[in-house]
Amino acid sequence: VDHRAKNALALAQSIVRLTRAQNVTAYVRAVEGRITALARVHTVLSLSSWQGAEIRRLVTEEIAPYSEAGQIQIDGAEVQLQPATAQTLALALHELVTNSAKYGSLSVLPGRLAITWEVQDETLILAWVESGGPPVTKPKQKGFG
């Protein structure tokens, strides 16, 4: 348990250091969202005694706040992920869904998001396809998410 706690704190420390925002309020919101995503995946992992996490559960947990409008479709085989992979993927999914809700297809009602995954030759391939969203514009700055 001690090494898990140290790893979680190291991840939280990295989140705090790498997060950039326009103002304090936006910074706090971004850090809280990322740490909450980390807490969600830790809950999922603890339910399996840290044996792993099923990818559908991770995806479902991250899209839950945005799934009411019926804009999101998920599909994929049952895939059990190792704890470290689950944590990394959960944080990546959090960034993707947050960006989609702010700037992408989930920011407008006609927008759609399809998340699919499969395993090929022991490699997980995840596809994140947005459609019907606003026009894509070049970012004004580089950031963590």
TrEMBL record:
Matches recorded under SMART domains: HWE_HK
Catalytic reactions of this protein: ATP + protein L-histidine = ADP + protein N-phospho-L-histidine
EC number(s) from the headed UniProt entry: 2.7.13.3
This protein's record includes keyword ATP-binding: yes
Keywords: ATP-binding, Kinase, Nucleotide-binding, Phosphoprotein, Transferase
TM region positions: none
Listed InterPro entries: HATPase_C_sf, Sig_transdc_His_kinase_HWE
Domain Signal transduction histidine kinase HWE region: 1-78
Protein name: histidine kinase
Pfam families reported for this sequence: HWE_HK
GO molecular function: ATP binding; protein histidine kinase activity
Keyword Nucleotide-binding: yes
Signal sequence region: none
